[in-house]
Write a sequence for this structure.
């Protein structure tokens, strides 16, 4: 062992002990007669002192050669510091060095290894191993480990069994794009990497393994939006002989446990709203409920006058911005510009100031009187001093726009405190969603989700209205988990495949094994999957998942550190029975 | 919830309770007036009784339609059994059923869902979800979960951090064949699936994350020998600022912990032998030391007579088989045939019976007298009643042959008790091994393994004799873990790459990131990786890893259940910039 103690361990109580430490040189201060070195390891920083009067001369000489990030080992004894540093746990002591070994030299790192570094994102990614030396990144990785340990312990204590499902599986065109793996031993054939262990966990239910979980890598070959990764980690779960209520209870329990153990936050029973209600109240299926600004639908109280914009709109809807009545004209104009940006896409915004004297001042005073505006304030629950922001247009679009505005304003108003946690179940998701491109309905969750029995009759008449036994767990405006009760009989599954446009042959080729399995006695079952990267980031009070992944890829799916992907040998291609087609 | 209790839970103390159970129909016995049904779930079996006098008539009628593996839910109350079944924990009670719901019907399964099934290997693999319903397979998967929970808890308690390393990495021709993944976004380029997280864990050490572990899938595109899987699971570990001794201590601790917690077996300090000693004493670098039959080298006491076979041999070596003197001539002939099989490859076998009267009877009495044979008995530590089996020839070959014979005989003699555990460290592995095919030395472990400093000078003169700081943990004749202290400086790593035939450009292209990293202050580090599949199988008292994998692949790398790999669409190929080359 190269050390007797870590660099975060020594206290006043260790005074006069002989110790051996090893770590990295964080910084050196050479005052001629005395050299101080901050020695760093994973556990902290300990100050070393090389004192010409008390340290052997050749050791002092060697200390003068130390550069940033050199790896060294020292022996010495623990002494009291003359000027204590109360900012670090080891601040009472320092090590009077008697022996120094340079274990490895270091060239100057491309950015500073400090909490606040001068390295940009690209540089930090290329030298990720140096970035990991920094406390913020290191602590995120340790935090992630703590979360997964808690998840495993909680589920295992509840009799869940972690079962590893295969990574080399079969490609299924439904859903996102698969990454595929050419098979050398099976010419012209390919494995696919799993987008999720969905079918395998269902087969485990058929196999009687009635409480399954797995913390598992999943893969999607998507064009990467910001903060998406081609490989990501899921907490994947499934239960048999359960209803939706049972699944929600268990995973609400897990989430409550994590909030308590990891963040020391106590949560009451999580509120639940339906998808329809979420869309109506927040314009969003993953609403952030840490703050209000609920939507007020204003059609009834706006469409009785000559204001054509509102009269023509499918939906007129507003929110009350706390304290917004004090915004200047310029500030409001900027807000209007903000909602008109292409990313939001509103055509304009109507506003009403709720003045301190109880009067209203709106941008549509020409059309509406004080009584009208008072009605609007009532519907949007605006108080004196608030600003009502109103958008109108096609229902789905205007809801998305107002939701974006609501989130933006909450950010500006500091209402999204990362250390406050507001979990929420959104239930009764639609079974199907219309896809403009292919001009047909797709499974909103996936083709294995069961429709609510009472809605099945709507499948042909009003497919968009069929609700599923599907649910999402939302935390602070982020979907952190989603799941459903599954279809567990061949007939319904066949119906669903048929409905989604699979021919019987296609269904059989892709999912025959699952349909077969259902014939041999499948229990009712359902489950959920949490996005671990996102969950950890949010619990960590941050929103960027990349900061919680040891070796993330960039937006082109590249690992810039190892420079992958890369070309491979022609011999390799030949063995795999493929050639490039550029 | 479909049930109030599991099928393994009810006892006499539950008598008269109203319960709801759900599960699979294991079997039915219809006696006309009374029908008994064994209901099974993951937790056990509970007997249901449908009694024409006490159960509603329509329920009895429905019970008559039940077939094997139907999924049902029943309500009823717990009553005392007339004839108790002491073989199962629920054997004191049965459920007098009042309500019966058929949750799902089942067609007749292709094999019986019993501990001893009538299904062959192929059928069981195709219907793995049914195989998992059987206790032996189900219990293996639960056992695996318990082992991994213990591993994680132990290492986490010792301050190890589980860090997820990427699955989409870069192909490196060194070592086994990679599985590769064409990149859609980076034309003509490929990711590779990791054969192990080796370089990433070393980078984590450079990053200061000084105790790392991960239970992780690894991939090797090898021609599959029996009981190898293209994807397999590793307990992957690395530590910084450690010597070999530290690594052995920690992972001996882990192994001892597992043996104690999982098997309730106490182990003393694990014995250690060098690779050279293992080869000399057991002809094998993973010796099973649950039994003796150590090799006795007989050159000195055999090469002084006219027996040309021995005189010409590089090595004459024997083992004493306990009680083997009683073997008949026929039995011994069969043994000789066995060693002459192509899989073993010996040209013949000399034997000596150590008779009860102290005399010896050998197959080479023509050449050797009683005194000679007594010497042989002394060297092989043969006792009265033993049979000495002697092979001769080229050293490495004859050692492998005698090792095979030793294992075979131990099996026959019942000396390999799967519930006895004999761990062993094998240390001081050679750094390099000669490869006949490429006619050069290869890294025996991998190119990152550090040579013993005192042996470095031998690199040019006697490369085969350079020892590495490399070690294996052997359990009951199986290598369950292997590791090494790594090179941690650029110069030695460059020397090693050069020695292994990499040009500087190749080394840079493939491992440039690691060489770069070493320049920024790499600590001394080393680690180990355990094969989880094998470890779990051995702890489970079995040797077939497939039985401990939920969804294994066959020897052609196929998943016969989902029928993967499979052809993919031309559109998919096009998007990936590849075409088939058949």
């Amino acid at each position: 062992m190269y050390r007797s103690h870590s660099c975060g361990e020594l206290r006043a109580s260790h005074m006069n002990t002989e110790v051996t430490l090893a770590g990295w040189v964080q910084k050196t201060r050479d005052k001629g007669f005395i050299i101080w070195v901050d020695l760093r390891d994973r556990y902290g920083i300990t100050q070393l002192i090389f004192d010409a009067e008390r340290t052997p001369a050749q050791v002092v000489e060697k200390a003068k050669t130390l550069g940033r990030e050199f790896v060294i080992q020292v022996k010495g004894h623990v002494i009291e510091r003359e000027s204590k540093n109360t900012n670090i746990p080891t601040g009472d002591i320092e090590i009077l060095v008697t022996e120094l070994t340079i274990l490895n030299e270091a060239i100057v790192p491309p950015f500073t290894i400090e909490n606040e570094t001068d390295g940009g994102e690209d540089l930090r990614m290329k030298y990720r191993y140096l970035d990991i030396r920094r406390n913020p990144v290191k602590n995120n990785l340790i935090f992630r480990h703590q979360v997964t340990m808690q998840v495993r312990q909680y589920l295992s204590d509840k009799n869940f069994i972690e079962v590893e499902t295969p990574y080399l599986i079969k490609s299924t065109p439904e859903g996102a794009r698969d990454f595929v793996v050419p098979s050398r031993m099976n010419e012209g054939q390919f494995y696919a990497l799993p987008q999720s262990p969905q079918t395998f966990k269902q087969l485990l239910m058929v196999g009687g393994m009635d409480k399954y979980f797995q913390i598992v890598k999943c893969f999607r070959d998507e064009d990467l939006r910001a903060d998406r990764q081609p490989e990501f980690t899921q907490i994947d779960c499934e239960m048999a002989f359960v209803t939706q209520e049972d699944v929600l209870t268990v995973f609400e329990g897990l989430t409550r446990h994590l909030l308590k153990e990891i963040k020391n936050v106590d949560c009451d029973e999580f509120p639940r709203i339906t998808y329809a209600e979420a869309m109506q109240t927040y314009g969003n299926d993953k609403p952030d409920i840490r703050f209000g600004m609920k939507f007020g639908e204003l059609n009834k109280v706006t469409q009785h006058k000559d204001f054509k914009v509102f009269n023509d709109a499918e939906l007129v809807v507003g929110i009350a911005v706390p304290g917004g009545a004090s915004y200047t004209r310029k500030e409001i104009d900027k807000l209007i510009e903000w909602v008109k940006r292409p990313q939001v896409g509103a055509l304009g915004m109507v506003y009403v100031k709720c003045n301190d004297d109880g009067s209203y001042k709106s941008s549509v005073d020409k059309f509406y009187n004080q009584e009208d505006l008072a009605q609007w304030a009532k519907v949007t629950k605006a108080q004196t001093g608030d600003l009502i922001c109103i958008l109108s247009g096609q229902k789905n679009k205007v809801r998305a726009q107002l939701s974006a505005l609501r989130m933006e304003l909450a950010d500006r108003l500091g209402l999204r405190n990362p250390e406050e946690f507001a979990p929420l179940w959104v239930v009764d998701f639609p079974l199907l969603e219309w896809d403009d491109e292919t001009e047909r309905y797709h499974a909103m969750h996936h083709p294995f989700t069961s429709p609510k029995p009472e809605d099945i009759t709507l499948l042909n008449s009003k497919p968009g209205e069929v609700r599923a036994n599907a649910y999402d767990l939302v935390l602070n405006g982020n979907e952190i988990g989603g799941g459903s009760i599954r279809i567990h009989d061949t007939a319904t599954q066949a119906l669903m495949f048929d409905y989604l446009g699979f021919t019987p042959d296609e269904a059989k080729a892709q999912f025959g094994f699952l349909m077969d399995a259902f014939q041999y006695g499948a229990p009712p079952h359902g489950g959920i999957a949490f996005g671990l990267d996102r969950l950890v980031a949010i619990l960590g009070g941050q929103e960027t998942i990349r900061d919680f992944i040891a070796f993330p890829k960039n937006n082109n799916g590249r690992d810039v550190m190892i420079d992958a992907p890369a070309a491979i040998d022609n011999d390799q291609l030949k063995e795999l029975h493929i050639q490039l087609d550029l």
Observations:
- Chain B touches chain A through 126 residues (CB under 8 Å).
- Chain B has three domains: 12-104, 146-165+194-272+424-548, 291-415.
- The first strand of chain B starts at residue 18 and ends at 30.
- The domain at 291-415 of chain B is CATH 3.30.1360.30 (Gyrase A; domain 2).
